[in-house]
Amino acid sequence: MKPRAIILCLVLLMMLSLPALNAAGSWVQINQPITRPEGWQRFVEESPFILGDKAPYAQDSPLTLQQWGNYPSIDGSTVCVPLGMELARQHLSIPEADLAGFVNFSTTHSAYERLILGRPNPNVSLASCQTVLDPEKPVDLILVTAPSDEEQALAREQGVELVLAPFCYDAFVFLVNAENPVDSLTAQQIRDIYAGRILDWGLVGGTAGLPLEAFQRPKNSGSQTAMEQLVMRGQTMFAAQDNYISDGMGDLVRQVGNFDSGQRALGYSYLYYVTGLYKSGGIKVLSVDGIAPARENLVSGLYPFTVSYYAVYLKGNQTAERFVEWLQGSEGQQAVRQAGYIPLVEVGETP
Predict the structure, then answer these.
(1) 102 FRET partner, CA 20 to 30 A, in 87, 238, 272, 289?
(2) Where are the domains of the chain?
(3) Phi, psi of 9 (to 5 degrees)
């Protein structure tokens, strides 16, 4: 084998065996194992969504290249990684050990860019059979939080139309250090804090004279978009210093729960993320307007910052459209629930 071919194979084998080390992706923001739920059930008896043909990756290479077939190429947000894994379990019977490599999401903004610009999710693999999924196939579908204004503008510039199909409920939540005596803030207090009008915890029921350190996320991240659109509602957020902007959701949780932050820190995330994907004993989740982000309050809409996650595709993509129809149907909603999310409808009902 030629030296160049040897190097190519070694690189690809490293990619197959170490998918979770993609520093730009979702896996570095997850500190909990994502395993098959106890009592797991298969709801799909015979899936119409299957992977395509296989062929040698390259001459003299031990790797196999597999086409996507009529299973959509998927990317997405960190909070949707467990759903991506559950979908693969239901339709493709992929071994658990291969799921991390198959569901190699790039986080919200990158996923939107790939979808809108027709780019692939190139780092998808099945390690146990030394298989690489077609790295040139454009993304068909993304599992994400709502798009930002800039992402919607990019779609318009590219002349494509985003179709947003909700598939579950979640709560956009606010986090404080576990030592903080405050258990609830009003929606208006939160807006005043992030507009720079409240700088002291004593003004919102905390320790008088204690500075309030409000952490943010980068522009176009999923949680920053929710903060701007859902919470601030057009009000301008104060310009945070770099050390108060957390690159990843896990980074924000660590900063809020850090011992050095004490009672000063405030941040935000999604309930599913902080209870299932990145756990920390150093934080607590606040009620808003006295309403806890409990399941019943999300289904009823009583919690003021109830959100949905979306399956998003470009209008006209029939593969994605058919898959989303399944996801919003009875089997898909059962899969959503089994992955730990709150489905839009009770099992057996029509969405």
Answers:
(1) 272
(2) 48-167+311-343, 168-306
(3) -65, -40
48-167+311-343 topology per CATH: D-Maltodextrin-Binding Protein; domain 2 (3.40.190)
Rounded CA gap, 67 and 55, in Å? 9
Query: Pick from 107, 23, 83, 30: which is nearest to 274 by CA?
Result: 30
For residues 58 and 20, give the distance between their C-alpha atoms in angstroms, rounded to a whole number: 24
| pLDDT tens-place values along the chain, 351 residues long | 443 343 344 334 444 443 433 445 899 999 999 999 999 999 999 999 999 999 998 877 889 999 999 999 999 999 999 999 999 999 998 899 999 999 999 999 999 999 999 999 998 999 998 999 999 999 999 999 999 999 999 999 999 999 999 999 999 999 999 999 999 999 999 999 999 999 999 999 999 999 999 999 989 898 999 999 999 998 999 888 777 888 888 889 988 988 676 789 999 999 999 999 998 889 999 999 999 999 999 999 999 999 999 999 999 999 999 999 999 999 999 999 999 999 998 765 444
* The domain made up of 168-306 is a member of CATH 3.30.1490.20: no
pTM: 0.90
Tokens of 230: 């859902």
Residue 169, classified by CB atoms within 10 Å of its CB into exposed (0-12), middle (13-18) or buried (19+), is buried
Point out which residues pair with 267 in neighbouring strands: 175
